[in-house]
Amino acid sequence: MHHAYIDKFAYQDSAIHRLDSRVKFLVVLVFTAVVISLPRSSLSILVCYAIGPFALLVWAGIPLKFVFKQILLVSPFVLVLALSCPLYDRTPVAVSFGPFSWQSSLGWIRCFVILGKFVVTMLALIGLVSTTRFSDLLAGLQKLGLPRLLIIQLGFLYRYIFVLIDRAHHILRARAGRKLRNLGFKTELRTAASMLGSLFIRSIDTAEHISTAMQARGFDGNWHTISKLQVRRCDLIFVLTAAAFISGLYFLVKPVLQ
Amino acid sequence: MHKAIEIKNFTYGYPDGTAALSDISLSVEHGRKVALIGPNGAGKSTLLLVMAGFARGTGKVLVDGLEINNKNLKKIRTRLGCCLENPDDQLFMPTLFDDVAFGPLNMGLSPEQVKARVAEALATVGLAQMADKAPHHLSAGQKRAAAVATILAMSPRIITLDEPDGSLDPRNRNNLMMLLRSLSQTLIIATCNMNFAASIAERAVLLDKGRIIADGEAKEIMSDVELMTEHGLEAIAKK
Q1: Which residues have C-beta within 8 Å of that of residue A163, sequence separation ≥ 6?
Q2: What distance lies between CA A257 and its chain's CA centroid?
Q3: Which of A130, A224, A238, B186 has the CB geometry, 3.0–4.6 Å to B4, for a possible disulfide?
Q4: Is the confidence metric ipTM above 0.90 for this complex?
Q5: Which top CATH class is B5-85+157-230?
Q6: Averaged in consecutive runs of 10 residues, what is the pLDDT profile of chain B (239 residues)?
Q7: Contact A135/B98, CB-based, under 8 Å?
Q8: CB-CB neighbors (< 8 A) of B115 in chain A
Q9: What is the domain count for chain A?
Q10: Residue A225 domain-assigned?
Q11: Residue range of the domain that includes A31
Q12: Residue A139: closest C-alpha in chain B
């Protein structure tokens, strides 16, 4: 079965793809923190900040249709939060854009700022996962000092989530093939519970088999890995450029736009 | 010289009391290719788990001269590599490189040695260009070959494979056959596919209901129509 892997474009080759995962992660982390900390009423600066991740996505050859699809996928949660702002904050404010000016409420401004921050940070995050293989990202996070147990669990999650989804699809297909009439809510619920139970038991089986495979290859509880990560000159240039972009906008452009 | 595998009067039962293996006696010399054949539930997979030290019962089991006990287990695991039935269980790391390197790293080899072993094992199974791929991006045939590579990287003297031909198309099955034939290690293959077994193994051990029914020259046993039919298997054509 084919899945929409979150890192499906991470196997391409570009200057951005070749950057060290730790460097990309740290830059995205700082970028996200700065964007989130921007004042709640500054919309124009967000457009400037969007240029950075947008340019990197284009440079890395990531299809923008894919990027916006991903953003739309997770947008409902933020949409609910953003759209609730105009309801509780109706303080009138004057808005101007070039020669145009009109009256609005602070709630609507906040709503657009929340959506703007969401889109900009998502662009950066998608840029990170679409140009970095998940395994490299994990290796980078481990080097940055994240707990090894968490890294191992994330690795297993990424490896087996698709196996689990496949199994769930197979079970659903088997049910659909034999479900010829409406069974009623109670029977449907019972069937769903059985299906979940079957999936759970098979997951335990898989876990036992994996444990056997690990022990068969000498695993004694200590996790050993070889790191292939290396910070090169291009990584340093990327960090300096990103730092100049983020701080330049923050200290030079933001006061002008406010 | 030690035998690769030596089992004497071994009996094993599941926790619910069902007898899985009864009075098994079997010895395999080094360098031999042996097929464990039998219907579903005959005890083939359990016997492979016994050889790898994952199932303990009564009787004696020696692997490369070492008796299976907690003290010898680590040594045994470097001498006997076991490949599970489902390659998705065998390939659990984020990349193929990490998966193949997992065993050698646990053996305490240096990073350079590990890299050399990984490169050699992947080249042997024809996946040299796939080292950085995630296992879920591999085809069924590639996953099977990768599972064998995870074992080869540990340079074991004995390799056990559980239904290695399962869910493979003819081309991938032929590729796997050629790969297994080319290996110099002792191979013990559990399978229900007689043609696959006959093309690799020179010796066959027929198991049914946890007992050894026949043990001898592979083609002779597998072409015995009466014996094969009696135990729910297909006989191969006599040549």
Answers
A1: A206, B88, B136
A2: 29
A3: B186
A4: no
A5: alpha beta
A6: 91 87 94 95 93 92 93 92 91 91 92 94 92 87 92 94 87 90 94 92 95 94 94 85
A7: yes
A8: 226
A9: 2
A10: no
A11: 21-140+230-257
A12: B94
